[in-house]
């Protein structure tokens, strides 16, 4: 039943990895695969190459050596949406944001609007109501990110009513994330880590100085207490004079629209849009610099490399697109033996390229192989967000601007 694989993607210069021609299920044991230039700890304040909270790499769960690539069933779980952006599951019920400023739940196969105070959402360009996560400790508590009319990006919790028809707004967890009035490079992806903390991937707002300015919340990955909004106590700069810097986990990012937690390892990966070249997937390490420094001519010089390796400790991407960019956005890990050769892969949605990538990583978190999913290659337009539901099914949102869909994908 296995299907022919599509051409493997060329790997960008930043990846430094070769491509294996075997399936995604190729032996991923220690030492397998080519040497790569993943985010080593060289020069980084982080102490390990394995990234966040995981000093000892462990085998990727659900990896089944030699498993075949399965045929996939793509079901349209909902339609009629408008730029769905954040997605989570309250129990088994899908909850999503639409960028214009709506929260919806999926009921009986139809989106149903949740009544919520979102009057101050400022939707413009790429900005608006973006990331959404469901609190892993409380399925009725959600946290969203949005560009506000106050001129910032903010992180705000809501509590869903028992019937999921209403959401009561809580006190913001964090405000003052920089925003561009045009909405450009607003981020803003949310993800709870295995550490129980809330991770936030932000955008650089198209201002050149922000990514390397550790006191700015733009162009960063932040980490905070998802209940109180306090900076994570073990963030790299807990005593920084500027309070904002206490939230920073890593810096030198461009526009983080994807965060993915690797099951079983606690590693967090970011997905970023490249400029003219080099979208990136990065393995996040505490205090590390991911090398985006768009200063030069003008206020925002995008001719610079996505990872400026002349910066001390700059961490190379695990994967980069090379030229052209694909406009990578959301990502999630695929788990469960039913996924065969895709099990354990990082699924990455592409807007411009309109496809879903599957990245096989080694136990050390380096790139081993890139596959494309043939069932989602151009068939549904631009793809934004990837999430897994409690049953292990993969959900993908489209971002075509009208009659967008929520796709539920399972092995056939
Ligand atoms: Ca980079």
Characterize the structure shown.
Residues 81-402 form the Glucose/Sorbosone dehydrogenase domain. It holds the Pfam family GSDH. It comes from Luteococcus peritonei. Residues 23-55 have a biased composition (Low complexity). The chain is mostly beta strands and 412 residues long. 0% of the residues lie in helices and 35% in strands. It is built from no helices and 25 strands. Strands 2, 3, 4, 5, 6, 7, 8, 9 and 10 form a nine-stranded mixed sheet that branches. A four-stranded antiparallel sheet has the order 1-25-24-23, with no helix packed on it. Strand 11 (189-192) and strand 12 (198-201) form a beta hairpin. The radius of gyration is 19 Å and the shape is globular. The chain starts with 71 loop residues before the first strand and ends with a strand. The structure holds calcium ion (CA). Residues 280, 290-292, 306-307, 317 line the site of calcium ion. Calcium ion binds at residues 280, 290-292, 306-307, 317.
**Number of distinct helices:** 0
Shape: globular
Structural class: mainly beta
Q: Termini, distance in Å?
A: 9 Å
Percent range for β-strand residues: 25-35%
The ordered string of helix (H) and strand (E) elements is EEEEEEEEEEEEEEEEEEEEEEEEE
CA-atom Rg in angstroms: 19 Å
Strand element count: 25
| Ligand kinds | calcium ion
What percentage of residues falls in helices of 4 or more residues? Answer: under 10%
| Sheet with the most strands, sense and barrel status | 9 strands, mixed
* Mean pLDDT level: 87
Unreliable segments of 5+ consecutive residues: 1-65
């Amino acid at each position: 039943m296995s299907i022919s694989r599509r051409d493997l993607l060329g790997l960008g210069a930043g990846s430094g990895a070769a491509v294996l021609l075997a399936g995604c299920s190729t032996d991923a044991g220690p030492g397998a695969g080519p040497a790569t230039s993943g985010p080593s700890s060289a020069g980084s304040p982080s102490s390990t190459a394995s990234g966040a909270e995981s000093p000892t790499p462990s085998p990727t769960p659900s990896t089944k050596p030699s498993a075949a690539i399965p045929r996939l069933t793509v079901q349209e779980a909902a339609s009629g949406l408008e730029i769905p952006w954040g997605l989570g599951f309250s129990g088994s019920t899908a909850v999503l944001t639409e960028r214009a400023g709506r929260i919806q739940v999926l009921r009986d196969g139809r989106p149903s609007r949740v009544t919520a105070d979102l009057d101050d959402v400022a939707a413009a360009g790429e900005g608006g109501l973006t990331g959404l996560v469901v609190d892993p400790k409380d399925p009725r508590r959600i946290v969203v990110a949005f560009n506000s009319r106050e001129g910032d990006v903010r992180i705000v919790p809501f509590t869903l009513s028992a019937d999921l028809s209403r959401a009561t707004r809580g006190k913001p967890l964090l405000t003052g994330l920089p925003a561009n009035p045009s909405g450009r490079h607003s981020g803003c992806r949310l993800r709870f880590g295995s550490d129980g903390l809330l991770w936030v991937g932000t955008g650089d707002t198209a201002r050149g100085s922000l990514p390397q300015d550790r006191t700015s919340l733009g162009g960063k990955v932040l980490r905070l207490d998802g209940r109180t909004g306090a900076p994570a106590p073990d963030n790299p700069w807990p005593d920084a004079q500027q309070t904002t810097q206490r939230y920073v986990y890593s810096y030198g990012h461009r526009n983080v629209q994807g965060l993915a937690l690797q099951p079983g390892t606690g590693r967090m990966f970011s997905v970023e849009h490249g400029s003219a070249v080099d979208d990136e997937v990065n393995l996040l390490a505490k205090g590390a610099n991911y090398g985006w420094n768009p200063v030069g001519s003008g206020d925002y010089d995008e001719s610079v490399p996505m990872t400026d390796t002349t910066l001390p400790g700059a961490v190379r991407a695990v994967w980069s697109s090379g030229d052209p960019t694909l406009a990578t956005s959301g990502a999630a890990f695929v788990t469960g033996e039913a996924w065969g050769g895709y099990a354990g892969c990082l699924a990455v949605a592409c807007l411009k390229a309109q496809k879903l990538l599957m990245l096989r990583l080694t136990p050390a978190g380096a790139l081993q192989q890139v596959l494309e999913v043939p069932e989602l290659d151009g068939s549904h337009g631009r793809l934004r967000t990837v999430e897994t539901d409690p049953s292990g099914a993969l959900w993908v949102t489209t971002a075509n601007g009208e009659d967008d869909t929520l796709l539920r994908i399972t092995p056939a």
